[in-house]
Amino acid sequence: MTQTILTGDRPTGSLHIGHYVGSLQNRVALQKEYDQYIMIADIQALTDNFKNPEKVRNNVMEVMLDYLACGLDKSTIFLQSQIPEIAELTMLYMNLVTVARLERNPTVKSEIQQKNFEGIPAGFLCYPVNQAADITIFLADKVPVGEDQLPMIEQTNEIVRKFNRIYKTDFLKECEAILSENKRLVGLDGKNKMSKSLGNTIFLKDSDEDIIRKVKMCYTDPNHVYVNDPGEVEGNVVFTYLDIFNDDKDENDSLKRRYRAGGLGDMMIKGRLSEVMIDFIRPLRERRNYYANNMDEVRRILKDGTEKARQKARENFAEVRRVVGLFY
Ligand code: TRP
User: pTM for the whole thing?
Assistant: First the structure.
């Protein structure tokens, strides 16, 4: 039997190369072996963007285009808000989680610190419960995520065990995280992870000109002032990206050797990185343009995916209703 994967993203902005190496690339490979569901988590996005519903709404199609640009055409892509059973299941799960447990979730904790809410919205504190419903309503076996999402998987499995015990069933399944091998991609500034809000990103839809301009901003070695100075490769963003995006390992090694020795200028290595990034982005941007010019097709893909996901959610939620006794 083919195993099921469930994963998703909050639609709060265009996707960038950090998303690509962290998850999108994995998903393109996984969709060949698994029954893969990819959720555009608009309801979860509202938990910290409830004052900006138009931002969430506008980014649904942006994320959809980015997915298709990457080649996610064998996955079931769907929209969270259009599956009311997820919200119903969330409500049942709320009873199985204590407030203290929610307050201990390390990812939520650090997000709360970053966001300086006026008061913590209950919806935000509870989003891991909603995420547990996302995952389990599809009886997902595997959830490909970044490290920051491991606490969500842990909480999901706690809920699954408690649900099965209390309602005397084995219907719900525990899930397993698939951690991507790649660590978080560092941003152009070399200091922070790549993130739209920090303005240190290369978007999957960037033009050649955008790429050239951004690569020029890359953090290199601040002590490498003159071409002939020896340069540091460690922590040098140009080399970090070359290692990831340039398949010619011999070339990378030789560039590093020459940079370390002195005599290779930042202009040179940035010029080479620009070419590499342009070659990487171009096919994605072309596919994206195709879909952007055929939005009816894009809307149909999302509609079909959502219908398929809803069907599965309905079937599984019927069993939940049965074991909890919610049938009249
Ligand atoms: N919390 C995830 C993020 O911020 C997005 C998400 C929502 C998700 N539901 C999910 C991820 C279910 C995996 C499974 O990136």
Answer: 0.95
Please give the DSSP secondary-structure letter assigned to residue 172. S
Which residue minimizes the CA distance to atom 5 of ligand 1? Answer: 9
Q: Which CATH architecture has domain 4-185+294-324?
A: 3-Layer(aba) Sandwich (3.40)
Q: Which residues line ligand 1 (CB under 6 A)?
A: 6-10, 39, 41, 44, 131, 134-135, 143, 145, 149
Q: Where are the domains of the chain?
A: 4-185+294-324, 206-289
pLDDT tens for the chain, 328 residues long, are 899 999 999 999 999 999 999 899 999 999 999 999 999 999 999 999 999 999 999 999 999 999 999 999 999 999 999 999 999 999 999 999 999 999 999 999 999 998 888 899 999 999 999 999 999 999 999 999 888 899 999 999 999 999 999 999 999 999 999 988 777 899 999 988 898 888 899 999 999 999 999 999 999 999 999 999 999 999 999 999 999 999 999 999 999 999 999 999 999 999 999 999 999 999 999 999 999 999 999 999 999 999 999 999 999 999 999 999 999 9
CATH class of 206-289: mainly alpha
Nearest CA to ligand 1 atom 12: 7
Cα(41) to centroid(ligand 1), Å: 7
- Other CB atoms within 10 Å distance of the CB of residue 282: 12
Q: In whole angstroms, give the CA distance from residue 155 to residue 175.
A: 11
| DSSP label at residue 180 | -
Are the beta carbons of 83 and 130 closer than 8 angstroms? Answer: no
State how far Cα 199 lies from the chain centre. 17
